[in-house]
Amino acid sequence: PKKVTIGHLRQLWRTKTPITVLTAYDFPTGRLCEKAGVDITLVGDSLAQVCLGYESTTQLTMDEMIHHCRAVARGSKLPFLVADMPFGSYYSIDEAARNAFRLIREGGVDAVKIEGGKDIIKTVAKLTAIGIPVMGHIGLLPQRHTVFSGYRVQGRLANRAASIVADAFALQSAGVFAIVVEAVPAPLGAYITENLQHVPTIGIGAGKATSGQVLVINDALGVAEWAPKFVRKFGNIGEKAEEGAKAYIQAVRNREFPDNEESYFMAGNEWRKFIH
Ligand code: KIV
Ligand code: NA
């Protein structure tokens, strides 16, 4: 097994092999992504809600993101490692470059992801120009949930659909290596995927035609209590975990745990004589 590179991702895209992406937030989820053989591990800013209990991604700081990136990087060495740039960390081009360097140097990631299209194109172009690989993110932009009045499918109306297509082309021109397309009608996901000439799309709630798929790992494994329409539960970890915790509590209360096999013993009773 070798480290996944942008060249490897391009090869997958050229041969129409779906690119697989999962999020990770700490050492164990990073290990899991690597052992499962995912192509890209994404330290998404969904970290805010999934792991830190914040209301939205807008609460997450750069320092928090870096702290978690370091843990993921220690566990996920082979997949290509991407980190979200937190809300407010790319408000100017200089800030974006400074914070992207921090994610790479301190966080240990290979690339950064930024939400937005035409509106942030100068920032994206600058980052790619100075050698920072950038992943785009269009359609539903969770960092703008307040502006969007919530989290809802994007591009059902003609002018918004056209605007999202324009975002994709703008990002391609700015040199991104891939684009996440979130919560758009499947035909729009397909159109963007077919018409981009240089970069793969990674869909989440964007239909089956995108070049790859991404899911939040807690959603995919069935850890989360609630998940959006576009999620499929590939596991039932939440239920299993609750069962396990309850079984432990019951066993302790019934004095069934620990048993002798789970305890340490010693030879003889001599030690008692040393107690005064
Ligand atoms: O933050 C995140 O987890 C993401 C993916 C779901 C694309 O941005
Ligand atoms: Na994100």
From TrEMBL:
Catalytic EC class: transferase
EC numbers, comma separated: 2.1.2.11
Range of the intact protein held here: 26 to 301 of 403
Keywords: Pantothenate biosynthesis, Transferase
Role: Catalyzes the reversible reaction in which hydroxymethyl group from 5,10-methylenetetrahydrofolate is transferred onto alpha-ketoisovalerate to form ketopantoate.
Organism name: Somion occarium
UniProt similarity note: Belongs to the PanB family.
UniProt lineage: Eukaryota, Fungi, Dikarya, Basidiomycota, Agaricomycotina
Name of the molecule in the record: 3-methyl-2-oxobutanoate hydroxymethyltransferase
Entry superkingdom: Eukaryota
Pathway note: Cofactor biosynthesis; (R)-pantothenate biosynthesis; (R)-pantoate from 3-methyl-2-oxobutanoate: step 1/2
Catalytic activity: (6R)-5,10-methylene-5,6,7,8-tetrahydrofolate + 3-methyl-2-oxobutanoate + H2O = 2-dehydropantoate + (6S)-5,6,7,8-tetrahydrofolate
